[in-house]
């Protein structure tokens, strides 16, 4: 199994094609792309067509085996960018392991399956196939990213016309239902809970979450795009990863503990992938917040701005991947966090 490289490139707009030039200048080809994970500057809600534009630009130009995941919303200091996971066949001298990644599209989901057991099972199956493809165990996985569909008004109307009941009658609410089902599918695939518990959690009857799940929903697709990132002895590269969770939107200490491990290893942070949400209890550490009661700005936008500012300060720039809506992705009110970092080339070896 070959490893990967990670290229993070700022973008001028959702249709910016300059990252392709950076890819080539870095010695890679478009055919080497495993996945493109981007932040675009829309509202991150149902009608965020910045995701659709970015998808329309990238999808025709990437390999059929690759997937895109575009997360809308760059509130505050968050900066639009793409993260290109690229297949790197080199075995870097001085390293006996490294990061590997694989991506896959699930089957197309029927609108009536969105947010329900069928979506949980579909994501579980897709993640399981990727683990087998990579030859890794769940314990070696640090991040599973999923982009999943939502219910548009037309899909909801069509379900009602067919005498079927959608998981939600509000398009925005359907985003949360879809993210929840995807995240629970990840948890099952990674052995963090069994299917029965996941289905109970889907209807609020069990408390399950994963520190390695990152799911976002959009109207630009009908299937699930899935990326698995793991550490494996089958690769030899300087990339490594750590994962954890923030207990709430201002949980600086948890992220600092992860970054301290990077520093202790002599590494350099390459990217932070995090989920963020407004605490459903209505308060953070005993103090009332207004994210859920603001009629002007959606709660996910507040959460991205808050967590994005905290993580950008720690990383040193605003090109961090923060996605809003963290159903079953870290504890309620908090979120999952994955740090990808790079180790220096050991002394006495030559870089490839």
Average pLDDT confidence is 96
Low-confidence runs of at least 5 consecutive residues: none
Shape: globular
- How many strands, what sense, and barrel or not for the largest sheet? 4 strands, mixed
Q: Estimate what percentage of residues fall within beta strands.
A: 25-35%
Question: What can you see in these coordinates?
Answer:
By secondary structure, the protein is of the alpha+beta class. The chain has helices at 18-25, 49-58, 117-134, 153-161, 171-189, 195-202, 252-264, 299-315, and strands spanning 3-10, 33-40, 67-72, 81-88, 98-105, 141-149, 213-218, 225-232, 239-246, 268-276, 283-284, 287-288, 321-324, 335-342. The longest helix has 19 residues, at 171-189. The protein is globular. The mean pLDDT is 96.
Summary tags:
8 helices; 352 residues; 4-stranded mixed β-sheet; 14 strands; alpha+beta; globular
In short:
By secondary structure, this protein is of the alpha+beta class.
Please write out the topology.
Blueprint: E1 3-10, H1 18-25, E2 33-40, H2 49-58, E3 67-72, E4 81-88, E5 98-105, H3 117-134, E6 141-149, H4 153-161, H5 171-189, H6 195-202, E7 213-218, E8 225-232, E9 239-246, H7 252-264, E10 268-276, E11 283-284, E12 287-288, H8 299-315, E13 321-324, E14 335-342
Parallel strand pairs: 2-3, 6-7, 10-13
Antiparallel strand pairs: 1-4, 2-4, 5-8, 6-8, 9-14, 10-14, 11-12
